[in-house]
Structure formats: C-alpha cells, structure tokens
Amino acid sequence: MLNPKFLAESPESVGIDPDNLADVVRRVRREVDEGLLPSAQIAVAREGRLALFETFGGATNDNLYCVFSSTKAITSAAAWLLIEAGELSVDEIVADIVPEFATNGKDVVTVEQLFLHTAGFPHAPFRPTDWLDRDRRLARFAQWRLNWEPGTRFEYHPSSSMWVVAEIIERRTGRDFTEFVRTEIADPLGLDDLHVGLPASENPRVTELMHCGDPMTSADYAQLGIPEPPVTEVTEEAILGFNRPEVRAVGVPGGGGIMSAAELALFYQGLIHGGSVGGRRIWRESTLEMARTVRSGDLRDPMSGVPVNRGLGIVIAGDEYRNFRGFARDNSSLAFGHGGAGGQIAWGDPVTGISVGYCTNGHDRNPMRLGRRGLSIAKRVAGLAR
User: What is the pTM of this model?
Assistant: First the structure.
C-alpha cells in the first residue's frame, strides 16, 4: 500500500495548477469512458509528493499494473549503483564478466552497448521462466547469435540485453537481481509496491492484461506513408503471458515490473533528486548526470529515422525530435524516461521537477492511437508547473 507521506496536501502545495491537473484527468479518462481501455491509472509528482493519483475503469488505486519496458529504467538504475561504486564500467567487455556469453561473435559486445540497444542481438529468444534455471539461463546466452556487428546500428532490444544486465548485476554483487532492486532501490525510496519479481501474495491486486481495438493494416501504414513495424518477440501471446503468476514472479528485467502509476512517478522523483526527498541519497548527482548523458551519437531509429537520443538505459527528450521519443514540446530537453508496451508512460523532468506514471491493462493494438495518447498526456503533464 502507498505510504500516505507521499500524498501532497494539495496540488498547489507542490507548485502545480489544479485546473490544469483536472485537464490531465479528463484526458486520461477519455479512452476508459469511451470503452476502449478497461482501466487506466495516472500519477503526477513534484517535490517528492503526489499531486495526483487516480484510477479509472475497472480498477482502484490499490491495483497494480505490469509496466513492461518502463522496467528498463529501474534495471538500469540498479546497474548505475555498481558504476558509481566502481564495481562496473560501461567500457568492459560483457564476456569478461559472463564468460558463457562469449560465443558466436558476441565476445566483442560492451556493457554500454547493452544499455544503448546497439549490442547486435535484438531478437534473441529467452523464455522468462528459464531465468530461474541457471543451466538453461547460461545455455540461452551461449546460443544467441548476432544479427549485425555490435556498435554499428541501433535496433531496440525488447528484452535480450536487459537479461544480460541483470546477470552482470548478479555476478558483480553475488546477490539475486530482484533482491538487489528491492533492497537498494525500492526500500530506500519507500516504494513498497515497486516489484521486479512479484510475491505470490500480491497477484490478486494485479490487473489482467487484455488487447484492445483493431490493429492497423498494411493499407493503413501505406496510406500514412510509414513503414510497418517489424515482427518481434513482443507478440500478443507474449504480452498476455504476464497474466501468469509464474512469469510475474521472475521479474523480467526488460519488461516485467509490477507496480502502480504512483510507484513510477515516485521512482522518477527519486532519480530527479538522487533518492528519497528528505531521506538518504541513493544516486550521486554525478552518477545521474553520467546516466543521462546522450551516448548514442547520430544513430537513428530505423522506424522514424530520427536520432534515438539514448542515455544509459533511458531516453533523453532532447530538442527538435522530442515528440518522436514520447516527450512533449513543453518538456525540457533534459527530461528522461522509458515508456512501456501498450502505452505505459514514465518520465521525469529535472528542470520542472515534475514526474509522471501512467498505466493501463488495455494493450492498444493501434500504435498510432497509442502514440497520440502518450503525447497528449505528456503535453498536459509537462505544462503543470506554476
């Protein structure tokens, strides 16, 4: 349950305009009221407190959601702690840490490339429950093959690279990855419901995932003049797999986090401020600046053709093309975050101090509508600071 200490006395008490906040609520409710989404949950935070936390449709504030790839920022932030402590370097060769990975040309992959989606194995298969069997886990790493030369291009790795990041955390700490996230991030931030690896007792609180709307056809893409997205491991069946308790329990490091929108918004408050507001510091400011530094150069997204603006496991808003990255024009260029499949939204803006979490259990089959929704919500949230 959410600690009441995180609730602001009023939006005004944290410098947020309540009338504009009401507009955020109206926008979030729209698809739920129209019957497209079964439920949606929104949280907006500033100064370490929640100015808004509401749920609409067939769920309540007590419900939890799978946040899919928004988990990548949490996994990455765990690795930042090792970098800060001098226990890991982004320049290291992955195979020097995980020797079983050094097959089929992967012996040249660096730690940094895992975070940047430039490692060359975007579609490497991995059954989530194989993680719990060490022999199967390592056999998977050994079986993987490169699709292209590491470092030469960007192609989003939906889950493969983060499995390796989690393995690196375990090798360097001697601790279970999910336990490390719990004790080094969730507990210090006071976020009891931030789960990467869900306890069985919490399953009744998790909203059931379902697919919504009709998918776009080839003709739809042609009419819009945009390429069809490639077929990846993020299939409808794979999405619904997170309805299974045994999959939720794994804590898939690239997409299996379970939490509420409040945990997402407050996690980003932690990243903005370095830790709990008024509490102990978790990340040094120099560590956060390091992580938010754009490292992807002029590498471009193969779908949109715009620079990807990737930091260490997160996306940085940047300037001209920030809309393509899920940020609003009203966001500062320093805003950063990582969304998730089906429309999950999670980002923080260190200039305004605002962070947001948005969750839904309705996986929209229409990526254009999904994208418009995310930008529409981001625009309203980004302009909330008074």
Answer: 0.96
Could you give the CA distance from residue 155 to residue 299 in angstroms, rounded to a whole number? 10
What is the tens place of the pLDDT at every residue in 46-56?
Answer: 999 999 999 99
Amino acid, res. 203: N
Query: Strand (E) positions, the chain?
Result: 39-46, 49-57, 65-66, 210-212, 258-259, 315-316, 336-337, 345-348, 355-360, 362-364
Percent residues over pLDDT 70 in the chain: 99
- CB count within 10 Å of CB 13 equals 12
3-state secondary structure of 44: strand
In this prediction, residue 333 carries a pLDDT of 96
* Whole-angstrom distance, CA of residue 18 vs CA of residue 32: 22
What is the crossing angle of helices 367-382 and 18-33, to 10°?
Answer: 160
385: three-class secondary structure by DSSP: strand
User: Which candidate, 376, 357, 386, 337, places its Cα nearest to that of 50?
Assistant: 357
Nearest to 100 by CA among 68, 67, 143: 143
Q: What is the DSSP letter of 205?
A: G
Instruction: Give me 126's structure tokens.
Output: 């991995």
Which one-letter amino acid corresponds to residue 352? Answer: T
DSSP 207-223: PPPEEESPPPPHHHHHH
Nearest to 118 by CA among 317, 293, 299, 325: 299
Q: How confident is the model at residue 386 (pLDDT cuts 50, 70, 90)?
A: low
- Residue 272, C-beta contacts closer than 8 angstroms, at least 6 positions apart: 348, 349, 350, 353, 355
